[in-house]
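Q&A log
Question type: sequence-to-structure
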Amino acid sequence: MYKTFLATLTAAALSAGAVAAAPAAGEEPRDAASLNAIRSQFGRLMTLANKHDFEPLHGMFWQSPSALLVAKSAIPSEGNWAAFWGNEAVDRKLHDIGSSGPVVLEPDYAKLKVVGLTRDIAESYVPMNITVSYAGQDGTARPFLMIINWLRVGEDWKVASEIILPVPPAPAAKG
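Response status: OK
Response body:
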């Protein structure tokens, strides 16, 4: 009986802590300064990516086997687009893409949106054009969406996941 009571009390305390950490509906969990810091980090990420500066790019990612990059795959068995988990896989993919030739990321900063999800997690969204010759792409600028989940690690914001999605062409008008 005592063990059941203790387990119930522990579960209640943990769930109360989770509720206390979540912001109220409609309340922004991050202040403007934090969101601006993430916008600044995003700009730095784009600068480093366009310079193919791999070592500082590595440092911008959360150092975890759960770090994620979703990008174009060059290996047919992975499918056209694939998930690359962990820092070694992310580093290798970024190096492969960046070493394939010119890569230019041109985000539409006017449409960059950064929102706090919790006190330690934020998300950014931006449409962009990417010019790349990797994995059969022809080096023509094409539209993409980039969605990044940011994780606060100490005082820094790190990329926990970066999802790059191609924007499909508009369907042909029926006429």
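Response note: The beta strands are 68-72, 81-85, 103-107, 113-116, 121-132, 142-153, 156-166.
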